[in-house]
Amino acid sequence: MRIVVTGSSGLLGRHVAAALVAAGHDVVGMDRLPPRPEARWLHVTADATDFAAALQIVRRCDAVAHIAAIPRPTGRAAEEVFRTNTAAAYNVVEAAVLNGVKRIVYASSMSVLGYPFFERPVVPHYLPFDSAHPPAPQDAYALSKWLGEEIVDAAVRRAGLEAVSLRMPWIQTAESFVRDVRPRRVHADLVARDLWGYLDAEDAAEAFLAAVERPIEGHRRLFISAADTFMEEDTAALVAAAYPGVPLRRPPVGRETVFDLAEAAAALGWAPRRSWRDY
Q1: For 137-148, how does the pLDDT look when each residue is reduced to its tens digit (9 = 90+)?
Q2: Which Pfam family, just one, is annotated for this protein (predicted)?
Q3: What's the gap between Cα 59 and its chain centre?
Q4: Share of the chain above pLDDT 90, in %
């Protein structure tokens, strides 16, 4: 298949593009930044907030993996984060619809639940989180990701295409884990905001590959994460300390993630294969 990957020069985007190329797909990367020297896909320097560029680049492709976005609400004006992310999502999805693309895979976020950038505390309705859990975005980034899912959903209703929104926690590599995660562990309030969740970049890329290739009906919103948390403590103890009294539909075993991965396994045949312990 010919697949457009937006945000292909970023951490997640370059892993997704590489996985698609390795699987034999014809990949076109779209990013404002140049690719790394090792990139093995056609690169187009363009901004996803430019509708004309998106419309041209998505022509004659079979699928789109939309990843381009400002990845957090910190360090940028909230208005810029919201405007950029929603405009990029609308432009790319609309370009896909107008060009007759049949499959969209959208890089969503666990932030649609309200974490980790909330201003007023967010308490889970139940654990583990699944696609039925109510969204509760507060900040500009979380709201932009939720509206991105809704833009995809509208396109599915309108054009009958197939779509997958992958709701992901913090994307990590061996290098970034040591730099970003380990120092954070000692701050109980911060890691509770993160829901102790992470996802190896290569596992994320494999989920995008499955979301492109597997048969899908309608629009599936799926949580994906590593199978474990990034903490040393058992998950039950973490939950009891941070969110006491939250109903547990299934008690966590050991250091198990608080995200229900069964839906992704059923829909995509995907399961995480990497852990920070392998780093």
Answers
A1: 999 999 999 999
A2: Epimerase
A3: 24
A4: 99
With 90 as the cut, is the pLDDT of residue 74 above it?
A: no
Domain count, the chain: 1
Which of 268, 82, 260 has the alpha carbon at shortest distance from 163? Answer: 268
Nearest to 165 by CA among 127, 110, 91, 90: 110
Structural domain of residue 25, as residue ranges? 2-278
CATH number at residue 222: 3.40.50.720
pTM of this prediction? 0.97
Residues 216, 220, 224: CA angle, nearest 5 degrees: 110
Residue from 15, 3, 1 nearest 168 by CA = 15
